[in-house]
Structure formats: C-alpha cells, structure tokens
Design goal:
520 residues; alpha+beta; 4 domains; disordered C terminus
C-alpha cells in the first residue's frame, strides 16, 4: 500500500476543522458597468447548514488526495477577507440602489482604506463569533455601515459604539451604562449583544434582509409594515415594504460593501492585509488600575489601548466592574509579567467618591482636595450645574486608601446633575408695616438672607416705600428635565416656580414609558 505524507493528511484534517462551507454568490451586482438589473423579487435567507464542532473525523483515502483542486479548496484561508468570503450565506440584493452605493464607496478610496484598516482590530473576533453561531459572515461587515468600525461613534439619536445601540436597547441586552463605562462601546459585549439581537430578529422574520431592516428600523416597525402589506394583498419581502429612506438604503449599503470585499479588483480597490489570526486576547485585571499605567505595563500606545478598550469613560479601570481588558496578542504576556513585577503597590491613583448631599462643584472640590477645574475635567461636569446627593465622582486616591472600589459602585454608580440656580440683584419697595419676615415669605427666600442683604436685624421693620434689596432666581428660557430612560422634554420657563432652598418645582405631564421595541 502506498503511504501518503503525514503532514498533508494533518493539513487536511486541520483545514477541515476551521473552514466554513463555501456558498456561491451572485456576481451580477459586483460588475461595474453591468446593464440594468430588474428589481429584486422575493428574498429568503439561504438555509444555514449546521456545523458540529468536534465531530468524528473520517479516514482519508488516496481518492481524497487525488484532486489538487479539492485540496486547495480546503486550505486555511490566506487572510481574513478570504475567510469572510467563504462564509457568505445571504442571497444577493440587486438593483439601482446597490449600484448607487457601490459608486459612493468606490469614489472614496481614502474612506475605504481608513475604514478597512480600522476594522482589522475587531474583524477576527466577529468572524469567530459568527462561525460559532453558524450565522452569515456578511454580518461581520455590518459595522462598516453602522459606524465605519469606530467604537467611539455616537449618532445624533444617541446610538453608540461599533454596532450603534440605543441606551434602552443596550440595557435590554445587558450592556451596562454608568458613570465609569458604557458597554455599548465594549468590543466583546457589544458584539455579543448585536449578534444576539440579529439572531432574535432572524427568528422573528425568517429572512436576513428583513432582520437587518428591523435592526435599523425596529422590529415593531417592520412587523407593522408586513401586516399592512398582508392586509392589502401585497408582497412582504424587503423590496416590497414601505419604509423610511434610511432603512431603504440600509441593506443596499451592506450589499455594496459585500460586493467590494468579494471582488475588490473589479472596483479598483486594494484591501489591506488582515491576518487570519486573533488581533487581541483578554487579560484578567485583579486590582483597580489607571488606564495610562495599564497601557504602560503592556507596552502599548495609549491610543491603541483605548481602541481595544473603548467602553471606559474615566481614567481608571475598576476591577470589580471591568475584570478583563483587551490587549494586542503579543502584549498580553508583557502586561501580566510587568503587572506582577510592579513594586509600587498602588495601581490606581483614582477612586470613587459619593456626594453625601446636593452641593456645588466648588464644595465637592473642597471636600475631595481638588481644584474646581480638576474636578470638572475628571468628571465631565459642565458649568452652572449642581452635583446631586448620591452621585459618584472620580477623585484622587490617597496612599491611605487600600480598598478598591466595590462592585456595587463600579456597576451602578451614576453622576446626576441639576441646574444651578442663578440669582440676580433686584430691589422692591416695602409696604406698610412690612417686616423682614413678610418680605421673605412673599418672595420665598429665607428671612436671614433678607436681613443679610439689607444689613438689618431679622426682626427689623421696614419703612413704607423703603428700597429692599433681594437676590432672586433668574428664570431660564427652558429647563431640560430627564423623563424616563434616555428621553428628555423641554419645559417652558413659566412652568418653573422659584421656591425656598433654591429648588425648582417643575410640573411634567404624566406619560407612560416602555422599552422601545426598535433600536434607533
């Protein structure tokens, strides 16, 4: 019996374990200058072939090695783009909208270059997760459409991160958002949540194009659009539904990017090399540690460190809330070695402080040993705002403070601010038998303040017509007041009435609040 090289057999076994089934794709939309294409008909998701990891390996026979073409097809992809192409499973969308988006992207080669280079940090992890869930690899390209792979991106509607989660939807998918971090920007957490959401939507609609429309527009909106068409006897595919322009262009954008990735040479595009290898690995953090120190111990540029750990909102990493950080693959061991060897003992120069009562920024700065400007900068506090009692702020950590921040504070700390009451000097004329106390009652201020402002005793009686000095709150044009989760209303100034102790009473119409079904 003829013996075959062991190395070749092992290569076949290994490549069979990691390569996703290759699915044929339509090339029509990928040919610039192709003739008009008819509007897309009913679109259904291609059936997903289950992958059973760790299944039994079949014996390799000489016939298996006879065809060099078959062997080449089973080789490990040369780069990650090739691996993504092999995992395409969605039906192609064709038409003028796709060609318009292709022209938009190809006319901006610098934009494509920046976007694809930025994606190189995150793509391998996303592709791994998609293959683990047996989902189409086209979905790895979705952050190109959502955020150009910028984890710090924030939309005008307050959607944040690579996958652009709204605050309420992020909370629904267990993405924590507090004073220390925003998991909508976290690479691992947001990818997990986005794929969970997409799987949920595909389960609802049974079609990837409709699932993507729901990801952009909301499942409730897509469901109602389908119901309207069913009632009118119309089709219910993505191409049939009446939807906003943003959603109408959403899937064609993804299709255009897919076409460029599939055939870059047809679009005079050169994709940067993205190795088919993990870019980062997760490293456990056991102590609160400054962001700058963590980057230094890992021998990583601060900018690169923040690109892999974009959820952090403060200059300190709290181990109780963020027990793991991401580091470039070759720097993980460097960090662990340097962390163990660090001799100063105090890894964090910042800690958390809870305001015991509502106070000015100046008072909070005095209590924490900071200047007002330092406290404002470290905690992003705008001018003319009060710090509400119970708010959590980042303040310097002294050598005497040995304990790290607790998990309760790290996971739930919030910074709540209220408009600072601005007063203006004014004078009024005293009436007959007018006293300090009666003036104070009329203008809702403290008698002691009236006495101090006019340099008289608290029991003094004013002469009729005497000028009385007062410092009264200035009414702003509008007051912005938080209502429910992630929503605000603007209330006319006439609804704001100055009262004692410098507070404002605001009447807000009662309204119901529910978790929005849609993402944006």
């Amino acid at each position: 019996m003829k013996l075959y090289p062991i190395a070749a057999i092992l290569l076949l076994c290994l490549s069979g374990c990691v390569t996703a089934p290759k699915t044929a794709t339509t090339d029509a939309a990928a040919r610039p200058g192709a003739g008009p294409v008819a509007a897309a008909g009913p679109v259904h998701a291609a059936p997903l072939t289950p992958v059973i990891p760790g299944g039994p390996l079949q014996p390799i026979t000489p016939a298996d090695l006879a065809s060099s073409q078959d062997v080449a097809g089973m080789q490990v992809p040369a780069d990650l783009w090739d691996r993504i192409r092999r995992g395409f499973k969605m039906n192609d969308l064709e038409g003028d909208l796709v060609r318009q988006q292709e022209q938009w992207y190809t006319s901006r080669p610098d934009y494509i270059q920046r976007m694809t280079e930025r994606s190189s940090k995150y793509l391998f992890h996303i592709v791994e997760e998609l293959e683990r869930r047996n989902m189409p690899s086209e979905l790895a390209l979705l952050p190109f459409i959502e955020s150009a792979f910028n984890p710090q991106a924030v939309s005008s509607a307050r959607a944040a991160g690579m996958w652009q989660f709204m605050p309420a939807t992020g909370t629904f998918f267990e993405l924590k958002q507090n004073v220390f971090r925003d998991d909508r920007r976290d690479v691992l957490a947001s990818t997990r949540a986005a794929l969970d959401y997409l799987q949920k939507l595909y389960g609802m609609f049974g079609d990837w194009h409709l699932a993507l429309a729901a990801y952009n527009w909301g499942e409730g909106s897509v469901g109602r659009a389908i119901a309207r068409n069913q009632k009118l006897g119309l089709g219910t595919t993505y191409a049939d539904l009446n939807m906003p322009n943003e959603t109408r262009y959403y899937v064609p954008k993804l299709q255009a990017v897919k076409n460029i990735i599939a055939h870059p040479q047809n679009y005079n595009t050169e994709l940067p090399l993205v190795e088919n290898h993990p870019y980062f690995q997760s490293v456990r953090v056991t102590r609160d540690i400054d962001v700058e120190l963590a980057a230094r111990l890992a021998n990583v540029q601060l900018e690169d460190f923040k690109a892999l750990n974009p959820s952090m909102k403060r200059p300190v990493i709290l181990a109780a809330g963020t027990p793991e950080i991401l580091l470039p693959w070759d720097n993980a061991q460097v960090f662990e070695r340097n962390f163990d060897a660090y001799t100063k003992g105090q890894f964090a120069s910042w800690t958390a402080w809870s305001a015991p009562a509502t106070m000015t920024v100046a008072e909070a700065a005095r209590r924490t040993g900071m200047t007002e400007n330092e406290l404002r900068t470290a905690n992003t506090i705008p001018p003319r705002m009060l710090i509400k009692g119970g708010s959590v702020l980042i303040v310097p950590r002294t050598p005497q403070q040995q304990n790290d921040v607790t998990s309760q504070v790290a996971d739930h700390g919030q910074l709540n601010l209220a408009p600072e009451i601005v007063t203006r000097r004014t004078t009024v004329r005293a009436g007959r038998r007018e006293t300090v106390a009666s003036v104070a009652r009329r203008y809702r201020v403290q008698p002691g303040e009236v006495a101090s402002w006019n340099n008289v005793l608290a029991s003094a009686v004013f002469k009729p017509g005497q000028q009385v000095v007062l410092f009264l709150p200035v009414r702003a044009h509008t007051v912005v007041r938080s209502v429910g989760r992630g929503a605000t209303v603007r209330i006319p100034a006439r609804a704001v009435k100055p009262v004692a102790q410098g507070r404002a009473s605001v009447k807000v119409p009662a309204r119901k609040h529910a978790l929005p079904a849609k993402r944006r």
